[in-house]
Amino acid sequence: MNSKSQTSYTVKEAEQALKRYCAYRERCHKEVEEKLKKMNMIPDARDHIIYILLQENYLNEERFARSFARGKFRIKKWGKRRIISELKFRQISKRNIEFALTEIPTEEYYTTFDELAFKRLKQIKETQPQKIKKKLADYLLYRGWESSLVFEKVNEIVN
After folding, report:
1. Spatial distance between the Cα atoms of 71 and 49, rounded to a whole number of angstroms
2. Alpha-carbon distance 119 to 42, whole Å?
3. What does the DSSP assignment read for 81-118?
4. What pLDDT score was predicted for residue 87?
């Protein structure tokens, strides 16, 4: 007989584990909920722990959204469309998504977009302008930059 042993947690142990989990980096409600489900906590216990995390400010959706937007923009160079879609996937409210986007300075947004476009253009080994345009546009769209910006830039820098 092959039985998989499942660790069981008391509410107090689970609460401490989740406090460490949230203290390590910002988390959204969805991540915390999934973690508690993996720990086999019953719905009442999950609700209780989430309530405590909120009360003690370990869990704060607006703070998470702002941090997420800043990080994905500055480190991964994602555009606003990709950031919005990832935040929606994490079930972040429309209001908090709007707050998150205020973390991205407009001037820096356009400068980053230009740098990214030119950097990628140098990496493309194609010779035909149409193929270059397609590869560059696909790359920038995948990273979540607005299509109007992408097509304007592609037509501007590829002859």
Report:
1. 27
2. 50
3. HHHHHHHHHTT--HHHHHHHHTTS-HHHHHHHHHHHHH
4. 98
What the block records as the tokens of 142 is 């995948």
Contact 100, 92 (CB under 8 A): yes
Q: Which two tokens stand for residue 2?
A: 């092959």
Angle, alpha carbons 32-37-38 (nearest 5°): 100
In tens, the pLDDT along 95-135 reads 999 999 999 999 999 999 999 999 999 999 999 999 999 99
Phi, psi of 78 (to 5 degrees): -80, 150
Q: Which amino acid is at 146?
A: E
How many angstroms separate the CA atoms of 132 and 155, rounded? 10
The token duo for 18 is 């989740």
